[in-house]
Amino acid sequence: MAGTVARVTEITARSDTSFEDAIRVGLERAGSTVRNITGAWVKEQKVEVSDGRIVAWQVDLQVTFVLDD
Amino acid sequence: MAGTVARVTEITARSDTSFEDAIRVGLERAGSTVRNITGAWVKEQKVEVSDGRIVAWQVDLQVTFVLDD
Amino acid sequence: MAGTVARVTEITARSDTSFEDAIRVGLERAGSTVRNITGAWVKEQKVEVSDGRIVAWQVDLQVTFVLDD
Amino acid sequence: MAGTVARVTEITARSDTSFEDAIRVGLERAGSTVRNITGAWVKEQKVEVSDGRIVAWQVDLQVTFVLDD
Amino acid sequence: MAGTVARVTEITARSDTSFEDAIRVGLERAGSTVRNITGAWVKEQKVEVSDGRIVAWQVDLQVTFVLDD
Amino acid sequence: MAGTVARVTEITARSDTSFEDAIRVGLERAGSTVRNITGAWVKEQKVEVSDGRIVAWQVDLQVTFVLDD
Amino acid sequence: MAGTVARVTEITARSDTSFEDAIRVGLERAGSTVRNITGAWVKEQKVEVSDGRIVAWQVDLQVTFVLDD
Amino acid sequence: MAGTVARVTEITARSDTSFEDAIRVGLERAGSTVRNITGAWVKEQKVEVSDGRIVAWQVDLQVTFVLDD
Amino acid sequence: MAGTVARVTEITARSDTSFEDAIRVGLERAGSTVRNITGAWVKEQKVEVSDGRIVAWQVDLQVTFVLDD
Amino acid sequence: MAGTVARVTEITARSDTSFEDAIRVGLERAGSTVRNITGAWVKEQKVEVSDGRIVAWQVDLQVTFVLDD
Amino acid sequence: MAGTVARVTEITARSDTSFEDAIRVGLERAGSTVRNITGAWVKEQKVEVSDGRIVAWQVDLQVTFVLDD
Amino acid sequence: MAGTVARVTEITARSDTSFEDAIRVGLERAGSTVRNITGAWVKEQKVEVSDGRIVAWQVDLQVTFVLDD
Which residues of E touch H5 (CB under 8 A)? Predict the structure, then answer.
């Protein structure tokens, strides 16, 4: 049963359009550093507001990736 | 005060487009089994990733439905 | 270091289109009462269902706003 | 050691007199569907208010019942 | 969809007779300041003891009230 | 500032009439062992059911008592 | 994407040998009622003691099973 | 038993010297708006860092104050 | 209804073979001080590691024992 | 592996100068009753306020001490 | 006081025999990347089921290792 | 919007003088490995005790640092 150990790492990502775009932004950046990402859990969702407008949609993600043997 | 007892049941639903579509998918499936669904609470949100792309948006829902007398 | 104290207040907002619209609805209403909102944390997400259809997307938000000196 | 597996199911019950009456209402309704209820844990307690008066005492219960072999 | 935004505020109330009386005391006081209270969630229940006797039944309530447009 | 240290101890108490009676039963028993009880926090509330009837109202209490100098 | 909705149900199972045996006992009993169990999460682990000896190893499991279309 | 209802409100305060100073800053600002503050619970503690140095000690406080009759 | 009050006390126990042995070790030690232990809840499970090997299996237990009348 | 069982007990301690002093006050008092204290976890931090001034810094501690064989 | 800073990292490990074997598998893999592992906390325990049989015992571990100076 | 992804990593740091010194020690060590630390959240606070004296003030920190593009 190879590849049975995975790591979970936490990232925070922001987008100026939506939470779902922020998830994509975060996973893309994470994917440039680690291989074999298998999923992510949305731990928190926040918005940043300035002058009454939402200027950032922010997610905290727990990203899981399988470790190479 | 008839119909004052409701049940809460947990389901997991997935969509390949968005979390909100996953909620609709889950409620539709739940509605084929039980009647009188009144709402749902989003307990968890996760994404599944393969080859660097999000292949499923998954929600864990606590679905409430009123019990018939 | 002026303006270093902020308040956090909880609101519940609903939309008939999406969670993200509910967040906008809630922040707009909050912004009519308090100034200097800097952000909000999404504490809960729920949907209301009637006759098998989602009739409201509801969010509980913890809204932060800086207090004037 | 027969009968060693139990199920836990969540219900919401309301009464217009008290939380304790709501627990009785919920257990009575649950008992019309399943046998061998052994207990319940009070997960949440809420009141509904209308025109300044409490119109419903509501409990969320985790009800345990032993499964037949 | 008017009146879709509500506020949630936390109060602590005490009674010398019971938790349920403390809830009534708290909601009555809250109702003298804000309108349109729709409900309350019982967050905590405590008793104060003096000379071996319970001298106060205390509840922490999260009170919800709808904001006027 | 004498007597500024208190201990917190957890007990479980049952009554066949109500949660509030169970709290009294628990505090009375605790008071036979320790002095200077100042309060208790209701951590959990459960009921035991037999043959469809509630046979015990059970509370888990965190009891606080001031330590003598 | 067929079969994308799963249910999560909670059971309590006991064994007189070990927690891991209790998990097997619980899953076996659950499998006699529902099909397509895909996994379980161990929510709680308890032991029952009598005369100073452990007489039961008990687990609370959240069991997931895929719903047929 | 006058004055038996209190409100709990959440604030965030910062200091450039310590957490305890941040608590004092927050209570001082809160005290300029409400009377009869009786205490505060430290909900979170954070530091802000810039160029490797701590530039702010931040606390989230739940402040309790007794409501006038 | 004699013997209806129980105490809950927390202990930490370690074994060099397994978590289940640690539970036995803890209950044995607890049983040398208090009578009438009825059960224990496993609150935490940890391992201690030295030179890449597990040198201790540690459990935090909430032990319940009935108080004598 | 002697002395492998420890107890965890909860105390509340107050100081009129700081949280860290309250921790020292609490451990000193606990040390007058039990031997072999190995550590403490800070569970809560609160302040008491009177006339706008902090009159007590209070900590809730989970104190661990090794049991003699 | 050298070596006083440690890192905590989360891994997920699976075994086809038991939870305790999964812990060993995870720590072994972690030990091939980092030195000076001092312990691990078992955050979650899950089983994977296929055709009614447990095919994997999975643990989520928070692994602590001391950082070199 | 460059630099919108941050990582969150957990460290444990100790000092023999105070919690605040432990935070500084931890951030200094973290800063020798990663750049662009923007803050830290205090997750836990513990003390180690030996012979009745506090010998270490320990903090668990969640450290956030912005990832380079």
Answer: 11-14, 25-26, 29-30
